[in-house]
Amino acid sequence: MKRVELIVIGGGPAGLSAAIEAAKTGMDVVVFDENAKPGGQLFKQIHKFFGSKEHKAKIRGYKIGQELLAEAQETGVKVVLKATVIGIYEGKEVTVMIGDAIEHYKADTIIVATGASENMVTFPGWTLPGVIGAGAAQTMMNLHGVRPGQKVLMLGSGNVGLVVSYQLLQAGCEVVALVDAAKQVGGYGVHAAKLARCGVNFYLSHTIVKAEGEEQVTGVTIGAVDQNWKVIPGSEKQFEVDTICLAVGLSPMSQLLKVAGCKMIDDPKRGGTVPTVNQYGETSVNGIFAAGDVSGIEEASSAMIEGRIAGAAAAYALGYLTKEAFEMKFKNSEDALNALRQGMFGPENKGRKDLTMTEEGILLSQSLLKKGYLAEPEVTAFPGVKTKIKGIHPVIECTQNIPCNPCQDACVKGCIKIGDHITALPIVGEDSACSGCGMCVAACSGQAIFLVDENTETGYANITIPYEFLPLPEKGELGKALDRSGTAVCQAEIVGIKSAKAMDHTNLLTMKVPANMAMTARFYKAMG
């Protein structure tokens, strides 16, 4: 039997963060991960993270994964791959299957960071080839470069469903519809909005009736549901698809903690069966900690902070940190975690459908919640939208209290203000002195910022939009400008294309449109 001071089970964002934090203090740390590559979900996440600098905002998930792996190597963390932990037993004994061999370890402390698994729903035809989870679709696209299908229907409007739908579009798939039995979009409105302006239709209060096909998916029928979640006869709609993608939630993979004798509870707000933990992530079994989705479903940013807290707590428990040093680390991490848990998407608001106002007292957009896009009359109610400014200026269509502030940091002219409260809506000052650099457009993790310039040519306006599709159009190209709903509203000419390393693959397209379309045109589509 091998002895280790700290065993971390799971090499995802929480596990790696925990291992790094503990190893920095000089602890002997080993990470067991059943996969062939560490990093967990991070390497599938090609979108930019939300939050602030300390949460790695505006950095893409796979780059965060690369940073964590490099840091783990620098701090001496031993990572054992293709290693499946079978059980945790009395005295913190751990059995691990590595290849065909069973190995026995005894640890002084254990951090379980096994993450979560995708939920599934059943319907006639759900076992046909072509019905896949959203995570599987991400794996195919972003790890293996394989397009999951040509025509895809997405079930689920939480952040996973919204983000993966956008990535399907980036991979060249057609997302024919986004369906959810709920009455309103479950994820961030900015994620929904960037789908809607690409032409994706939302069918809320709908569910899948059946998948069609003999040997594989060839179509799908959906139907509207009543207040009892029953399909309303006569409401059925049929789509020709080859792929049905399911994003219907995640469940913590907490079985090992139950085997270890940890006290467990069923908490729907945390995703299902989870261990009871204290503020440091320690379970009811002394010296066994839980971090990340295994203790409650949240974003990867939160999982990394929870990992850091658990890693520091394990180091403190074994005397590698003084009480003062540990309390300082905990306070900093707790502050960062609490910042992410504020706003209308915070844990205390999970599942609530009765929120009607922003923190600033502005009515939430009902069009955004029910259709996926802002109705034009609603836009000017928000402090990031100013119509009286002449010359080039940002228009920020961020209308929900999301923990995110990269736009404030990106603006060297100070045109954009959020303040210390990370969930506050961005404000554009009336006396804005925008330079037109476009860094705010590129920095926005939700792609919700546009530059509007109505003083370039009589009768026309230039609109600069974020663009993350290939191939890029060419300067001088004529195409269509689409509005927030994805409807073509006018001709558009590409007059500028800007790409820079600092923009991290968010290209800036500047299109010339008729002046009366300045507050309407929000996306570009090539002719044909």
Automatic annotation (TrEMBL):
State the UniProt keywords alphabetically: Oxidoreductase
4Fe-4S ferredoxin-type domain: residues covered: 424-454
Supply one GO molecular-function term.
oxidoreductase activity
State the coiled-coil residue ranges.
Answer: none
Q: Give the top-rank taxon of the lineage listed in the UniProt record for this protein.
A: Bacteria
InterPro entries in the record, alphabetically?
4Fe4S_Fe-S-bd, FAD/NAD-bd_sf, FAD/NAD-binding_dom, Metab_Enz_Cyan_OpOx_G3PDH
Xref: PANTHER family: ANAEROBIC GLYCEROL-3-PHOSPHATE DEHYDROGENASE SUBUNIT B
Name this polypeptide is given: Opine oxidase subunit A
- State the species of origin: Acetobacterium woodii (strain ATCC 29683 / DSM 1030 / JCM 2381 / KCTC 1655 / WB1)
- Gene behind this protein: ooxA1
